[in-house]
Write a structure and sequence with these properties.
single chain, mainly alpha, 4 helices
C-alpha cells in the first residue's frame, strides 16, 4: 500500500494515508499512556500527588485520542463539503496498520 502510494497516488490519497497514520499513532500513544498511567496509579502507594498525576495522565491520553478522532471527522466533513473525494475507511486503516507492523517484523 505504501509503495503504491509513493509510485502513483494523488495528493488526496497521500493526505488520506497520512491522516490514517496519524490516527494509528494517536491510538498507540493513547494505549501506551493509559498503561503508563495505570502502572503509575498502582505504584503510587497512596501518595495523593502521584495518584493525581496518574489520573491526569490517563485523562489526557483519552482526551487526546478523542481530539484526534474529532479532527479526523472534521477533515472528512470539510472534504465532503468541498466535494473532495476523501475516502478513508476503517478497513484501509487496518490494512495500513497491518502493513506497518509486518514491515517492522
Amino acid at each position: 500500500m505504501i509503495r503504491d502510494l509513493l509510485e502513483g497516488a494523488s495528493v488526496v490519497e497521500i493526505v488520506a494515508t497520512f491522516v490514517a497514520m496519524a490516527l494509528i499513532a494517536a491510538t498507540i500513544l493513547c494505549l501506551v499512556y493509559v498503561i503508563f498511567g495505570g502502572i503509575s496509579f498502582i505504584l503510587s502507594a497512596g501518595n495523593e500527588e502521584k495518584i493525581k498525576k496518574a489520573v491526569h495522565t490517563i485523562r489526557f491520553a483519552v482526551i487526546g485520542l478523542f481530539v484526534s478522532f474529532i479532527a479526523f471527522f472534521i477533515v472528512r466533513f470539510i472534504a465532503n463539503i468541498l466535494d473532495i473525494p476523501f475516502e478513508l475507511n476503517f478497513s484501509d486503516i487496518l490494512d495500513l496498520m497491518q502493513e506497518i507492523f509486518s514491515a517492522l517484523s
